[in-house]
Write a structure and sequence with these properties.
heterodimer; A: 468 residues; mainly alpha; 3-stranded antiparallel beta sheet; B: 238 residues; alpha/beta; Rossmann fold; 6-stranded mixed beta sheet; 8 helices; disordered C terminus
Chain lengths: 468, 238
């Protein structure tokens, strides 16, 4: 009976013009979106490779120079573009692509793609994630809104009931007929994405298991939508009403809930303004050691401590250059200040994420979106991780440069220049994003929310359709 | 095959069916005559298990309908007044599906055989139901009953709206099924068709079975008179 119902429903769907047209439109949109994203991915990746090589060459070829001058001259940490961003661009467009690494200061990522666009960018981009998250659920509604109501309206439900059908089998047949075209479209998209990424040169950390996991997440998302649409159809008497309710659910789940979640999260756990943040950092910086100011109270305290530790009377008697040492200690204080304030931002982000996770109960979109971005390495967590890795590299770079001065000069000595080949001894900045297992562990709550949606919607569907 | 024992259905204060006792045996065609609201459709719905009786019992092939709805449906086929099938599927596909959901696995040749037996023209087998007349759809309904090998046939105003030729063909089909031992209960307004096809006729009013006849024992004019008297009409057309 399941197979018979599946075949009957599939024939009915394929013979309806609106269904054929909708599927063709969605496939065309997907094709265009994948093509645009592939081109964009290739361009950005090429730019990344060129910029990274060029910036390193500039660093390596500074010639003879004072290390602290080099520290102020700075360098860049470039954020790589990850292969699965082809499927889900996440927050990449807004989060910035590079961080300027310099002495005394932790900078924000800059040069976001959104900043380069005109106001027309507000219309949004045609990307695979847009099709996956918004358009395919609409297609599910279009294909399934009248799945049960048409049986009532046509009168075939009475005839079916007189045949003594098994309702669960009948429903599974209908479910399968709705699931199959969606599954094929999604599988096709992910297969094409996988083949494209597998054949791109320098495709980075792409692996099929992450892609397969992402496919699984979207499949579950669509199953939830299929269940909800069928549930609505089973509880409604008229197809028109079923369509309106299903579209209302789509608006609520995909458009209203994310924005409401964002507003609630921001109002409950607000970020400080840029000005507040900068003022707080400056205030804390001033309360500690300034590496460039030998006359401050903190500098004098450090001086006394070091003299005592080494058992000498004068800074000239130290086996290293105390000025460079003080500069390094100043860096360490500033790093602590930045760590403290960025930790607050990260805590706020974590709290906001909890609010989002809590609100996943009202929309399967939210956990799907977060899982998708996390798997694509285009979520805020990955961006934070990149920014933290860049900061750790900045701190290590400052230590590397200050130590060189401290070890190779005497206190009071001026005009020191490190040799031209010194810069190459600094390891290049490399960033490895979180691995699949780590991502899944961190997104346990999102997976659980999606799982609850899956089982609850299945349970409700089977329960309510028992008495059709 | 079809039995009711003091079958009663009330909707609030209103009695739709009042202690109905029916017995339709194998190879019999029982026509229930009555005006709208007499309780004919309620009787059929109770036999189908679509509604629960207030009291009394309904049996199909000796199985209590209320106790085992799905099992009783294995033995019966139902054709409503306006049989609706899937318009975008062909006659053959509709038959295949409805026979399939009833648990019958039949070859295409078998299915075609049932459609032919139901009187549908061969060229209509692969045409979509959307293009079918009501008479043609009723034939597909009979083909579904044949494919299901139903022992009991429940018909609710099946000839309503059919032209005389189609109505006559439908009557012949019922006779054919009767020959196969099918017990048929048909609710109808059509006294002429009832007299022509039935072995037994009952007249219902206000949920009660007022009179019963063996069809061969009563002439059409007497049946008509009995019907009108039951309906408390004094003259034809009044």
């Amino acid at each position: 009976m399941i197979l018979k119902t599946f075949l009957k429903e599939t024939k009915e769907l394929l013979r309806e013009g609106r269904v054929r047209i909708s599927i063709v439109i969605v496939l065309l949109l997907l094709g265009v979106a994948v093509w645009i994203s592939t081109k964009q991915y290739q361009n950005v990746n090429e730019q990344y490779a060129v910029a990274k090589t060029a910036e390193r060459a500039v660093w390596d070829n500074q010639g003879e120079k004072n290390p602290h001058s080099a520290a102020h001259y700075g360098t860049y940490a470039f954020k790589p573009k990850y292969p699965l961003s082809l499927v889900d661009q996440g927050v990449d467009k807004y989060a910035g692509t590079s961080i300027f690494l310099e002495a005394h200061k932790r900078n924000e990522a800059q040069f976001s793609a959104a900043a380069d666009q005109t106001g027309l960018a507000r219309f949004g981009d045609l990307t695979p994630d847009f099709i996956l998250l918004f358009i395919i659920p609409l297609l599910i509604i279009l294909l399934g809104y009248n799945s049960f109501t048409k049986e009532r309206e046509m009168g075939t439900l009475t005839l079916l009931n007189s045949q003594g059908i098994s309702h669960p089998k009948w429903i599974i047949g209908k479910w399968a007929a709705l699931f199959l075209p969606i599954f094929v479209i999604t599988a096709l998209l992910f297969l094409i994405a996988g083949l494209l990424l597998g054949n791109l040169e320098d495709f980075g950390v792409f692996n099929w298991s992450s892609l397969a996991m992402m496919f699984l997440v979207y499949t579950v998302y669509y199953i939830v939508f299929i269940n909800v649409v069928l549930l609505i159809s089973s509880l409604t008497k008229k197809s028109g009403i079923a369509l309106v309710i299903s579209l209302s659910v789509w608006i609520l789940a995909c458009l209203a809930a994310p924005k409401a979640a964002s507003n609630i999260a921001e109002s409950k756990h607000p970020y400080p303004t840029r000005q507040e943040f900068a003022a707080n950092v400056l205030k804390d910086k001033k309360q500690g050691l300034d590496g460039h100011n030998p006359w401050s109270k903190e500098a004098k305290l450090l001086e006394a401590q070091v003299l005592k530790e080494y058992g000498v009377d004068s800074l000239h008697q130290l086996p290293f250059n105390f000025s460079a040492y003080r500069t390094q200690k100043g860096e360490e204080h500033e790093a602590e200040v930045y760590f403290k304030h960025y930790k607050f931002l990260k805590d706020q982000y974590a709290n906001q994420s909890k609010v989002y996770s809590g609100l996943a109960a009202i929309s399967p979109y939210l956990p799907t979106r977060f899982l998708s971005m996390a798997l694509a390495h285009t979520d805020y967590a990955t961006h934070w991780d990149f920014a933290d890795t860049a900061e750790a590299y900045r701190i290590a770079t400052q230590e590397f440069l200050n130590n060189n001065t401290a070890q190779n000069t005497q206190y009071g000595q001026r005009g020191y220049k490190a040799s031209a080949d010194f810069w190459q001894q600094l390891p290049a900045f490399e960033y490895d994003p979180p691995e699949l297992n780590t991502i899944l562990t961190k997104n346990r709550s999102n997976m659980m929310a999606l799982g609850i949606w899956l089982f609850a919607s299945f349970g409700l569907l089977l329960f309510t359709t028992k008495t059709l | 095959m079809i039995n009711t024992n003091n079958l009663t259905k009330k909707y609030g204060e209103q009695t739709a069916l009042d202690h109905l006792n029916l017995d339709v045996k194998e190879g019999e065609i029982y026509c229930l005559l009555g005006a709208n609201g007499a309780g004919k459709t309620t009787t059929i719905n109770l036999l189908l298990g679509f509604v629960e009786p207030t009291s009394g019992s309904a049996f199909i092939n000796q199985l209590n309908v209320s106790e085992d709805k799905r099992a009783t449906k294995r033995f019966l086929a139902y054709i409503p007044e306006n049989l609706m099938l899937y318009p975008s599927l062909t006659a053959l596909e509709n038959l295949d599906y409805f026979a399939g959901v009833a648990g019958k696995r039949l070859s295409q040749d078998n299915l075609k055989g049932f459609l032919a037996e139901a009187g549908l023209q061969t060229e209509a087998f692969n045409k979509r139901i959307a293009t079918f007349s009501k008479g043609m759809r009723q034939k597909v309904g009979i083909a579904i009953a044949l494919a299901k090998d139903a022992k009991v046939l429940l018909l609710d105003e099946p000839t309503s709206g059919l032209d005389p030729k189609a109505s006559n063909e439908f009557g012949l089909l019922l006779q054919k099924l009767r020959g196969k031992g099918v017990a048929t209960l048909m609710a109808t307004h059509d006294i002429f068709r009832a007299k022509e096809v039935a072995t037994h006729i009952g007249i219902m009013k206000d949920g009660q079975l007022k009179q019963q006849f063996v069809a061969n024992d009563i002439s059409l004019s007497k049946l008509e008179k009995a019907y009108l008297n039951t309906m408390e009409y004094n003259e034809v057309g009044s």
